[in-house]
């Protein structure tokens, strides 16, 4: 199982990925929410264990127990809000300093459906991501643009034989990418 941590404004992104839903007025995550989603990648199945911490300052001190041992993190900012991009950069620095050295970090510029109100330029965010070795995509939880793609990109970048722990001893964590024979793959999540 792959434990993924989502930080900053991402409750809508996670809800779209896991349940295919979008709520215009999504309430902020209090503390952390836990969701799972299984996807197929070629001949393997990847199960994401997602801890949505929403990046709220009042819960900042709890974040390390969720990202410790995580194999991936998605740091999300709002393309219509420069301050959210600055906060995302701070989260990236923290993850680079304190998370696992092999963590895959993705930067998601959410609300791409509001491109006419953009204040964070695509090129600026892309250059930042390249300079810091991050995956980068602009997404829209509302229209579902690139939501599944960012999780697929993370799954492709992960080593296939990871093992790890869940936050504060919860769950197994790690990456469980099960090889499947072609018949069972068609009957599982890929059908």
From TrEMBL:
Renumbered residue ranges of the record's region Disordered: 162-191
Keyword Nucleotide-binding belongs to the record: yes
Keyword Hydrolase among UniProt keywords: no
Regions of compositional bias (Polar residues) in chain numbering: 181-191
Stored PROSITE patterns: RAB, RAS, RHO
Transmembrane spans: none
Keyword terms, alphabetized: Nucleotide-binding
Biased composition (Gly residues): 163-174
Protein family (similarity comment): Belongs to the small GTPase superfamily. Rab family.
Protein name: Rab5
């Amino acid at each position: 199982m792959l434990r993924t941590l989502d930080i900053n404004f991402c409750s809508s992104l996670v809800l779209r990925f896991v349940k295919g839903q979008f709520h215009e007025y999504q309430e902020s995550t209090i503390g952390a929410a836990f969701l799972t989603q299984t996807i197929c990648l070629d001949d393997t199945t990847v199960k994401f264990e997602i801890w949505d911490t929403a990046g709220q300052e009042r819960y900042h001190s709890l974040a390390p127990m969720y990202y410790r041992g995580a194999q991936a993190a998605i740091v999300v900012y709002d393309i219509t809000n420069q301050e959210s991009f600055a906060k995302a950069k701070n989260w990236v620095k923290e993850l680079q300093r304190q998370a696992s050295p092999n963590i895959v970090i993705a930067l998601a510029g959410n609300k791409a459906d509001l491109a006419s109100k953009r204040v964070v330029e695509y090129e600026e965010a892309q250059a930042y991501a390249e300079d810091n070795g991050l995956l980068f995509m602009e997404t829209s939880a509302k229209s579902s643009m690139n939501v599944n793609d960012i999780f697929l990109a993370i799954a492709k970048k992960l080593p296939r034989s990871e093992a790890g722990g869940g936050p504060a001893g919860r769950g197994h964590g790690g990456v469980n990418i099960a090889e499947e024979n072609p018949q069972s793959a068609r009957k599982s999540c890929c059908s």
